[in-house]
Design brief:
Number of domains: 1
Strand order of the largest sheet: 7-6-1-3-2-8
Largest sheet: 6 strands, mixed
Bound molecules: S-oxymethionine
CATH architecture: 2-Layer Sandwich
CATH class: Alpha Beta
CATH superfamily: Peptide methionine sulphoxide reductase MsrA
Order of helices and strands: EHEHEHEEEHEEHH
Oligomer: single chain
Number of helices: 6
CATH topology: Peptide Methionine Sulfoxide Reductase, Chain A
Number of strands: 8
Length: 191
């Protein structure tokens, strides 16, 4: 709980920023986040498997569903961090990962989240955080399918894997350096 009031209202965000091992690893170190679950959303296939999503033909993106305490972490600030740790300017691509399943996407849960996402994108484009304009999709949230168990907590459980060392670890390091004031005190319990 990290010191937060356990009776306070919680908010849920669903965000796709490329490979969900990366976004899960980052968000699970963020103060105010209470649960992070990797999964699939934004497509049409029902109960998709990882292998099906990897083909790029299910319409789904790899996403994380984040439950957070908005009195500790606002949706605005969560999005600012999200847009810093993944590249929202490359269409259907994050580095070496190419395909619609790696698209940058905000699946908003209500009009307020939609408005906040538009506002944060404007702010960061104005700041020229990424120089280029954002290609992030803003779409209404419909369904979330949790990923297979072995994808949960993947970075913590597989730190020596090649992808984890060369792709996930640098993103986590960048996040820790840039947002050191936002790191949680104790590790997040497994989802
Ligand atoms: N290209 C990476 C992506 C992993 S991710 C969970 C791999 O196939 O290992 O999509």
């Amino acid at each position: 709980m990290d010191g937060a009031d356990s009776t306070a209202a919680r908010e849920v965000a669903t965000l796709g920023g490329g490979c969900f091992w990366c976004t899960e690893a980052v968000f699970s170190e963020l103060r105010g986040v209470e649960r992070v679950e990797p999964g699939y959303s934004g497509g049409t296939a029902v109960n998709p498997t990882y292998e099906q999503v990897c083909t790029g033909r299910t319409g789904h993106a790899e996403v994380v569903q984040v439950t957070f305490d908005p009195s500790v972490l606002s949706y605005h600030d969560l999005l600012t961090i999200f847009f810093t740790v993944h590249d929202p300017t490359t269409l259907n691509r994050q580095g070496g990962d190419v395909g619609t399943q790696y698209r940058s996407v905000v699946l908003y849960h209500d009009d307020q989240q939609k408005a906040t996402a538009e506002e944060v994108i404007r702010e960061l484009e104005d700041e020229k955080l990424w120089r280029k304009n954002f290609v992030t999709q803003l779409v209404p949230f419909a369904v979330f399918y949790p990923a297979e168990e072995y994808h949960h907590d993947y970075f913590r459980r597989n730190p020596t894997g090649g992808y984890c060392q060369f792709v996930v670890a640098p993103k986590v390091a960048k996040f820790r350096a840039k947002f050191s004031d936002r790191l949680r005190a104790a590790p997040l319990a497994r989802a």
